[in-house]
Amino acid sequence: MVRTGILCRAGLPLLGLLWAVTAMAAPRFIDKDTALELAMVLDKGVFRGKLITSTFVHSPQTGAYQIKVVLDNGAELNWDLEQIRFWSADDSLTLSKNRTLVFPDEDTNEFAILNKNDFTRTALRARVYAKRYTGSDVLAGQIIHFAVHQFNTVDLLELTPGRDEQGYPHRYVLDLENGQREFLSYLDAWEALNRGGLMEAPGTDPVMHTPYRLRGLRIRELERMVENGIGKFALEMIFDRPVLLKPGHFPFRLYERKPGKGKAALDNKFVIEVTAPNAILPQQVNEIDTLEYLYKIQAVPDGRHQNRVLLRAMIAPEVLTSPPEVEVNADTVAVIFTKVEDQSVFDRKALQEAELRRKQEKLLAPTLTPEEVERRRLYRQHMETGLGQLDKARAQLNLNERFEQLLATLANFREAAIHASSDLQLEEALRQRNDLADRLPVLILEHARQSLQAPSIPESDRLIALVRAAKNLTRDMRLLEALEDVERTMVGG
């Protein structure tokens, strides 16, 4: 059998609407060994609500195999890899033990297996998400570590699922502490699990908890180096605190700016754009008219991505002798440009090659094992305990004790989700967790405000602890500020 995280030879590109944006030519049929392995994987899976009772390999032509499946209603179907890939992506086909097939590379015949239970258990425990940027993103190839606030499913939040760059629908949601919301498909989930991108504790890399706030732009005047006839100047982005990201996290791209409909042709149609990730623009910063061969220099929010600021400037591309360099020093990110005095040495090749390098290729009814029996037992135990605590909390007259019991209830629902062994169990546990996590901070805030009206605050230490716990449950800035105000009043009092 194929283990989670191991790539296996198989498959074909998807032709059809789901993969309409690609033009691939991988074969629809596979070799015998791969067909036998895939048949084993599909056995006892579920196709559109019907159990796959048995699987065989079938050769419609010499050396080219497909899979024959028999469903529990007696139907016999012949599947090629195009169909299997498509049905795996749209949830028509699910493997036994709550697993699903994914195809990591749209240009090769490789498949992998995502164990959804393993992934959700890991995601629910994760406090850090190492996001790896892929596809057409200018940050492709870079990894940034973000603190995780909460894990959810797209269906539970009643969101309209988008798709990843290979066409897989988004299934999961990671809300990060910096305010970003990351959507993951089954393919993204497999990739994150396979490379250890979800961690319970931070490693050596810095973790982003809040976005950097861009305070302004500053110029560094041209410094000439007479010995080789060149000079350097820089644009500096000044942030609100020391920047822990690396220079590689601030990539640039050069593109042609096209005039709008009916507008006159532009004197200079090219823009150079530097991306600053995990950054916001709390208020507009002053533009810079010109700096050497750059002009109309401005910082703007990225309209397509959360928590990104773009440093833009108009430019004549032929004046760039080499790509700009980035230096990170304390709260300043400097984008350094080279200027050559001898116009005959200007060369765009280095810039074009750097741009090309950044455009990388995109990248159920089994016999239960003792581990599965134990997982299901723990799920029932935590769910039943949580629901029981919820009933007891409603009858508790002491409000501090009631809220402490609700916090314990929340922990049990979270543990139940970790031990879920099906999508249904996962969503039920997350539904209970989400509902309580949304209501509890508001209830604690109201209780704390009422307590402050009393001549003396009863059990003030317990109440302060509750307020601090409530702050960890929410990312709503207005609610956080209100809780912090109440905490300051209680501590000061």
Short description:
The protein has 493 residues and is of the alpha+beta class. It has helices at 32-42, 81-89, 116-125, 186-194, 349-358, 370-395, 399-418, 423-452, 460-473, 477-492, and strands at 8-9, 46-47, 50-61, 64-71, 76-79, 93-94, 99-102, 110-115, 128-132, 143-153, 170-176, 181-185, 198-199, 207-208, 212-225, 230-239, 252-256, 270-277, 279-280, 288-291, 294-301, 308-315, 325-329, 332-340.
Notes on the structure:
The protein is α+β, with helices and mostly antiparallel strands and 493 residues long. The chain contains 10 helices and 24 strands. The protein has helices at 32-42, 81-89, 116-125, 186-194, 349-358, 370-395, 399-418, 423-452, 460-473, 477-492; strands at residues 8-9, 46-47, 50-61, 64-71, 76-79, 93-94, 99-102, 110-115, 128-132, 143-153, 170-176, 181-185, 198-199, 207-208, 212-225, 230-239, 252-256, 270-277, 279-280, 288-291, 294-301, 308-315, 325-329, 332-340. Helix 7 runs antiparallel to helix 8 (423-452) and helix 8 crosses helix 9. The radius of gyration is 28 Å and the shape is flat. The chain starts with 7 loop residues before the first strand and ends with a helix. The model is unreliable at 1-26, 262-267, 342-355 and 357-365 (pLDDT under 50).
